[in-house]
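Lecture 7 notes. Example A: sequence first, then its structure tokens.
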Amino acid sequence: MKFSIEHSVFDKYGSISFGFMLASGLGKVQDFSQMYHQIQSYSDLAKSRIREFGRAVEIPQVKEWQDIYGLMGAGKSKISSIESLLQYVSDNGKIPAIIPLVDMYNAVSCKNCLPMAGYDADNIVGGSITLRTASKGEPFTPLGLRQIEKTKN
């Protein structure tokens, strides 16, 4: 598995931070209780940060991502995935339970107040992921949708 970031991303979004996590063997785990104990502690940490700053968007790392979303051309009505996740934790008291892998990276995302994504390494064509800026008119499928759209900027 290879993960790379093109220099143009840093040129355009200078102070951006990235994390990368590779997990394997999760299909063999029978007891996730220890992992869910850790997830709950990250939920508690997220709730504490939200109380400290008043709103998720006021947390410095979240603010920084909102600024980056703005540079990407997202309007004010668009919120980053980390703000949305932290707002969910604030409203519901816990990280949403989806499947163990997603729950784990959502917990790490809450702990670090950074957006994260998960991919099935076995299904990545060519075994590598490159983070880059999109070209105008490039097709993509927005999260949660099935219809292909094209980038505007």
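Example B, a different protein, same format:
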Amino acid sequence: MKIKAGQFNAYRKLLHWGKPSPSGKGSCRLWVNRGRKGSLTTAVEGAARLGFGNAYAVGSTNICDGQWHHVVAVYKGGTSKKLANTVSIYIDGNLDHLSARKDGIPYINTNSASSRPLSIGSMEYACDIDELYVIEGALSQDEVMQLFTKNRL
């Protein structure tokens, strides 16, 4: 997706799907990181954050600078508890190093009667989103760069 965002004062959801719960277990979320508490003391504020339940990975590039950014989140699958082995975040075609993470086995429940389909954006967050792709399967780094430079796979 391409996103253009300014400053904000709370977590801002970009995408969400799966079964909602107070802990977030059973859902997947891509949002803009806000805050540096607890295990997030090293997290970059305004960076892309990909979460699965209580596990999450936070990139290191602040995308809330009022400029357009190409953001790609890749989930490679598997049962590794080390989240860095199963997810990657790319900003403007480049692999974004993680500034923080909380490990755990990613789990998304899309088969529950209370599961929700993909939702885009958050009503309280003013940002522009353009060219959103949801692709079945994990993209390679070369495919991410091709999507960034040519806008197609």
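Note on Example B: DSSP finds one helix and eleven strands in the chain. Helices lie at 141-150.
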